Amino acid sequence: MARFLPLRAGGLGFQITAAIVGGLFAGAALGAAPYTISQKDREFRPREIIIKRGETLRFVNDDGELLHHAYLSADSFDFDTGDQQPGSQFDVVFSVPGDYTVLCGIHPKMKLGVHVTK
Ligand SMILES: [Cu+2]
Question: Which of 26, 42, 46, 90 has the greatest number of beta carbons closer than 10 A?
Fold first, then answer.
């Protein structure tokens, strides 16, 4: 049993180190790590999210064959991912505080509430 302990500890240490290094790299380059918004079965998942100003949402098309097209059109902030192929992703930095509803240009019932705090 004792022989396994150093191996397990070493493995865990590597994972922690990798997470820290990855976090630092992302922090230096892009700000905080993005929150993933999955688009699957004609829904955004999650349907609501609270983030801080300057944080990033990563829109991922997790549907096997469907296109998605997330967009937001508000007075203070807007974006448009364009048509997203299955498997593709698109990052959006929310730089303006507010309450927003993101829609899909292809599936009118898809809605995502984004609440951006200061
Ligand atoms: Cu869609």
Answer: 90
- pTM value > 0.90: no
Distance 53 CA to ligand 1 centre (A): 25
Distance 11 CA to ligand 1 centre (A): 40
Q: Find residue 91's DSSP bridge partners.
A: 58
Does the pLDDT at position 23 exceed 50? Answer: no
Instruction: Yes or no: say if 101 and 113 are a contact pair by the CB < 8 Å rule.
Output: yes
Element (H, E) at 77: none
Smallest Cα–Cα separation from 114: which of 86, 93, 84, 83?
A: 93
User: Would you say 103 and 71 are in contact if contact means Cβ atoms under 8 Å apart?
Assistant: yes
Tally the C-alpha atoms within 13 A of residue 99's C-alpha that lie toward its C-beta: 1
For the chain, give every domain's residue range: 1-30, 32-117
Is the Cβ–Cβ distance between 68 and 90 less than 8 Å?
no
CATH class of 32-117: mainly beta
Instruction: Return d(Cα 14, Cα 35) in angstroms, integer.
Output: 24
Instruction: Specify the pLDDT at position 115.
Output: 98
